[in-house]
Amino acid sequence: MKSLRSAFLALAFVTPLAATAATPESAPVAALDTALLTTMKAAAAGASFTARYAALDPVVRQSYDLSLVEQNSIGFLWSTIPAAQQSQLNRLFEQFTVANYLSQFTSNGGTQFQLLPAEKDLGTKKIVETKIIPADGSAPVEIDYVVANGPQGWQITDVLLDGTISQVAIHASDFSSLVTAGDASQLIAALKAKVASLSGGAMDSSSS
């Protein structure tokens, strides 16, 4: 199971530009960028996976509406999944999201991440635009974030590559064959395996 297509993963080694004043809508994106830069510096300094996880996890939980992203990724079958499995999925999806970031953001590489001032309306949501500027001088790549204003304030609900390729849609494609009405055991097993793999064995969810 792939969390992101290879195009997403190839963009992982980034260094945010100097801090830009964030609007309320872009604040979660700016906070995530800052935390990822800290994560990369920690990795370069030899910090363990578990230490970096402990530092990044609360920022991801604050920046993302993980529950909404997860439910949208699973789709209409979410409501049929037993409460005990939903609880497992909530925990595993969070671990999967954070572990995926940590497995990719391991070096600053000299590439820059730019938060753009323009924002687009998407109904009641906003699209916060960013660009990844490669250190080798090649063309910048657009990574946009869909944010929504919910009970916890503005949070990320999707990520778009080149303004069009939805991370939620990729998850939905990956998850679709692993969930049936009333049963998400295959998805639970797949996420456990993925977390263990992404963490290099530092996080073993097999017993959870």
Describe the overall structure.
This protein is an alpha+beta fold and 208 residues long. The protein has one domain: Tgt2/MlaC (Nuclear Transport Factor 2, Chain: A, Roll), CATH 3.10.450. The protein has helices at 6-9, 27-44, 49-63, 66-74, 83-104, 167-175, 185-198, and strands spanning 15-16, 112-122, 125-133, 141-150, 153-161, 165-166. The longest helix is centred in the middle third of the chain and has 22 residues, at 83-104. The radius of gyration is 17 Å and the shape is globular.
**Whole-number radius of gyration?**
17 Å
Level-1 CATH class name: Alpha Beta
| Average pLDDT reading | 86
- Count of β-strands: 6
CATH fold-type name: Nuclear Transport Factor 2, Chain: A
CATH architecture: Roll
Structural class: alpha+beta
Topology:
Elements: H1 6-9, E1 15-16, H2 27-44, H3 49-63, H4 66-74, H5 83-104, E2 112-122, E3 125-133, E4 141-150, E5 153-161, E6 165-166, H6 167-175, H7 185-198
Parallel strand pairs: 1-2
Antiparallel strand pairs: 2-3, 3-4, 4-5, 5-6
Helix pairs in contact: 2-3, 3-5, 4-6, 5-7
Can you give keywords for this protein?
globular, Nuclear Transport Factor 2, Chain: A, six-stranded mixed sheet, disordered N terminus, alpha+beta, 208 residues
Q: In short, what is this structure?
A:
The protein has helices at 6-9, 27-44, 49-63, 66-74, 83-104, 167-175, 185-198, and strands at residues 15-16, 112-122, 125-133, 141-150, 153-161, 165-166.
